[in-house]
Amino acid sequence: MAKLQVRGARKAYGATIALKRGDMVLESGEVHVLIGSNGSGKSTLCKIISGSVRPDAGEVIIDGRPVTVTGPQMARELGIGIFYQELSLAAHRTVAENISLARLPANAGVFVDHAAVGATAERYMAPFADVLGDGFAADTPVVKLRADQRQLVEIMKTLATEAPVLIFDEPTSALDSAQVERFFDVLRKLRGEGRSIIFISHRMDEIFAIGDRVTIMRDGETVTTMALSDADHDMVIRAMVGGQEALIATGNADDEGTRRTGKTILSVQNISGPGFSEISFSVAAGEIVGFGGLHGQGQSSVLRALFGASRRQAGTITLNGTPYTATAPRAAIRQGMAYISGDRGHDGVITDRPILENVTPVHFLRNRLTFAFPGRLRAAVLPALQALRTKYATLSHPISSLSGGNQQKIVIARWLTDPPQVLLLDDPTKGIDLATKTELFALIRELAEKGMAIILYSSEDSELLTNADRILVFSGGAIARELTGADRTRYNLYHAAYEAA
Amino acid sequence: MSGLVAQPGAGAHTGIGRIFERFPFLPAFVILIALLVLNGLFEPNSLSFGALTGLVSTYLALMLLAVAQTYVVYAADIDLSVGAILSLVNVSIIVLMQLMGGSALSVLVACFAGIGIGLACGIFNGIIVAGLRLQPIVATFATSIIFTGIALYIMPVSGIPAPSVYWRTYGGRLFDVPFVIYLAVAVAVILYVIARTRLITQLLAVGDNQQSAYQSGLPVTMTRIRGYALCGVFAALAALCITGDTASGDPLVGGAMTLNSVAAVVLGGTALSGGVGSVAGSVIGALIIGLVNSLVFFVGTPSEWQNLVQGLAILVALTVGILVSRRAGQ
Amino acid sequence: MSAAEPGIGRTAALSAERLVRQPIIVALALIAALLVAGELLSPGFASGEQILRLLIVAALLGIVAAGQNLVILGGREGIDLSVGGVVSLSAIVAGNIMNGADAGIVPAILACVAIGGLFGLINGVGVTLLRIPPLVMTLGMLGVLQGLLVVVRQGIPSGNAAPALSGFVTQPFLLGLPGIIWLWIGIGAFMAFLLRRTVFGHRIYAIGSNEHAAAMAGVPVRLMRVSLFILSGMFAAIAGICLLGYSGQSFANVGEQYMLPSIIAVVFGGTPLSGGKGGYTGTMAGAVLLVILQSILTTINIDEAGRQIVFGATLLVLMLFYGRGRAMRG
């Protein structure tokens, strides 16, 4: 009998479907890998199992018994422990307190038993003793730790639940190889004890090093489950990618690089900043340059630095031949930069406000307006909205009444109402349906042909392959490889991205 | 004193940051020492044992009220009804003692009843704010109106005196040591003990990041309600002290103290955003408010300028405290 | 990921529910209900004369709430506790300047608005440049203002309101309505224009709704926030002048009673304390609602205590109408 089973789990946030149909079967004594591109529904599936997200449909079955996980407390009682990708640590509490937080040992049921808390911490720190790094002690507040050390604390906190089912949602993204090795030793030991482990990672070598079986998810659905002993990298990648067997890019992107005829608009030399260093490249008018690689390798950081939204320490940037020094988005916008982020909730959507007000902020700044007369504003924003074929009832409807894809179109229209010189696209289609994506990329190509210089970072490789004229593959904050012309194949891209990691 | 800090242990890193982390109230403590020295310079008598005892007996109520506020602020909540709870308990115990004849026994019974009333008010606040998920600022303002109403119902006009046994004890001496000293020591012990409870760690974790705490499996709602309950109890204790100090009942006595309790908490290095702080800091914050007031007097500020100078000094102390602790936290 | 609203395919039933959930409609319905109830309880309550008197009182609160509304709309825990102090200070300064003479009205207005703007500026700089939480900054400023009041007052009542000012506030001016009502209507129109038809207004909602996205779209967030505090100070100053006209003379700390009610009026008008949505028209209704509620309680035959208890409880019940916080489970 399976230890844990999920059948037909579904979750939608308004019009955005986070998980269409999640299925998986977890056996005792296995490390079960869950893989899929960003937004494919892995994290939502895990949060449904651990009770912090309420599913719209579907069932969770533990030891053959259907259960309703009403919340994290209930999940613990049912024997489920989870490592949260975004971490669930109390920043100002110590490492030891965080490890024991949910079940603080107490004397007389009232006073924190510091000795026991410390002992528990030491016990779970022990396997990692030689890879903890400087400044890591049981009594260090988590806020003082580096990113990798925090991730280790979250790992220890998860292990300390001693739950029969352990879920690890991208536990290794900030860890170095030695830390990963220690972690895997622990996982192997737990597997030997018969525990069930769900493991999410984007690193192919890790998946094969630790996994027994793999369940592959795509676009919010479970695609298949296979034994990793019978599989190789290519098989897994193919299943993730889906039926698109064509390994050579065929899309709007130019195959020979002949379109690169325009003059250089943006030239970047040796810039460094948080999360990237020594980055150099240039973009010509009419060109779409792709940023590829695994998630979080510095692509977004470079784009944000270009937009003046984060600090850059060194290097020079020229825009149209003149030095470009914007240190704030305001200055960048005035000089003709536009930045479209796929993180709508954080960077884009002005929640609760009407559609019109979501389009106009940049228009105000570019035209130095004082008054906001709806008639004139409507006339100003309509061309961009029409070009994007945005569907909406009226411009006065709140933006939250739209689907995710249409919300993103509104945000994009904000930047195209007064066309910029350089368009920075930071994973712009995250969580958007396929039809909308196609429309968007057709428009982006059109803009390029009108002479705009465009940088496109996408976490979906097929988007890069079909749309970028050149692809710069990022790894560890540097450009690992440049793919041009016929080199722009899915295989080369996956290879460069996954092997470099 | 470090036992009163709700953040046990120091990091393995070095420097000033480490000290601040262990003693988040350090900026406040430095200000306190400076104020004591200044007070001593301008009025040497102000550092005498008698004068300091007087200071404690006057400000013990504000200290306790600040402590009460601290417990909810730990969890990133706030309680604008602490002053009203204090008033309600003040009039309740006076009326109770009067009804029971003002004997020593009646005083004791009334004190326990008062603490029970504070607890009930706190639980009510907790259910309103955490249980019904209302905004703490406006919701506790509304409950403060209710508590004040009840206080007015119990004692429509101020002025009923406390039994003499009550205020004689509070202001008197035991074995030649002022009674408030025993109280202060008892309070310190109680705070030390409470700082070691599981509830405090849970409150701080909830204030640190409510969503994280929930995902970790903490009973977030229940923890916040307990925080308000604890706050109510300490507001009641503050009422017992103010009753000893003023020796009479006043249904509006606490009204002006609410905002001072918030100021004392912030002065003490506790962040209103929750997750960090110490009750020791809040006690120091209350003392700072007291010492600023006395210093302004000792310096010889013309009487009509005293309030302004006090206000400015507190504003500067608040600002400097926040800036210093932020810099240290980085 | 935050929960989104239902999609385009809303049913008629849902629209009706939305209508009921419109805070301004809730407020207006409650106002109507209270007027009817008042008339039943005490015939004459809803007479024209009586309503006019209520509106004057509501206008005073409403003008303070205009500034409070702007600060709250701007988000990031925006709140201005110093408005009470500015109202009091402005009333006294205005009284001293005009000293019963109409010629002094214009200088008084200029001086008071400048003073209010100055304190708003200091608040804004503290909140943005020094990153002091608004609650702490404006609380500290309230202390300073209360001190300043004592200095300015020098222990004596302020000068008298100029006759023209008193007439403006209390006597019919146009169409039987006193000038203050027209002023309030004017402020309402100004606020509506500001919030709906100016870039400034759109940017207030943008920073209140999603500060980060606004900054990324080129909104000067800090400058905006400072401006909001300046406007809040100015509105409080105007209210102070009107208050002087209403009472003829200013003596005690008269502004204090507007501090928290101005926040409640904003909340009851449909602007949540988290900012980013709502508007001033609702706040005007909220101010009227609060004033009527208080007035109806004074007409019922219960004592002050019962009145307060009912008032506080009613506030709590109303808050439940105005939306509760989000549940922790997604």
TrEMBL record, chain A:
InterPro entries: AAA+_ATPase, ABC_carbohydrate_import_ATPase, ABC_transporter-like_ATP-bd, ABC_transporter-like_CS, P-loop_NTPase. Coiled coil: none annotated. This is Sugar ABC transporter ATP-binding protein. Pfam families: ABC_tran. The keyword Membrane applies. GO terms for molecular function: ATP binding; ATP hydrolysis activity. CDD domains: ABC_Carb_Monos_I (cd03216), ABC_Carb_Monos_II (cd03215). Belongs to the ABC transporter superfamily. Keywords: ATP-binding, Cell membrane, Membrane, Nucleotide-binding, Repeat, Sugar transport, Translocase, Transport. Residues 4-244, 259-501 form the ABC transporter domain. It comes from the Bacteria. Signal peptide: none annotated.
From TrEMBL, chain B:
The keyword Oxidoreductase does not apply. It is a multi-pass membrane protein. The chain crosses the membrane at residues 23-42, 48-68, 80-101, 107-130, 137-155, 175-195, 227-246, 252-272, 279-299, 305-324. Its main location: membrane. Coiled coil: none annotated. One of its GO terms (cellular component) is plasma membrane. Keywords: Cell membrane, Membrane, Transmembrane, Transmembrane helix. It is found in: Cell membrane. CDD domains: TM_PBP1_transp_AraH_like. InterPro entries: ABC_transp_permease. One of its GO terms (molecular function) is transmembrane transporter activity. It holds the Pfam family BPD_transp_2. PANTHER family: ABC TRANSPORTER PERMEASE PROTEIN YPHD-RELATED-RELATED. This is ABC transporter permease. It comes from Oceaniradius stylonematis.
From TrEMBL, chain C:
InterPro entries: ABC_transp_permease (IPR001851). The chain crosses the membrane at residues 24-45, 51-72, 79-98, 104-122, 134-153, 173-195, 226-246, 282-302, 308-325. It is found in: Cell membrane. Its main location: membrane. GO terms for molecular function: transmembrane transporter activity. The keyword Cell membrane applies. It is a multi-pass membrane protein. GO terms for cellular component: plasma membrane. Pfam families: BPD_transp_2. Keywords: Cell membrane, Membrane, Transmembrane, Transmembrane helix. PANTHER family: ABC TRANSPORTER PERMEASE PROTEIN YPHD-RELATED-RELATED, RIBOSE IMPORT PERMEASE PROTEIN RBSC. This is ABC transporter permease. It comes from Oceaniradius stylonematis.
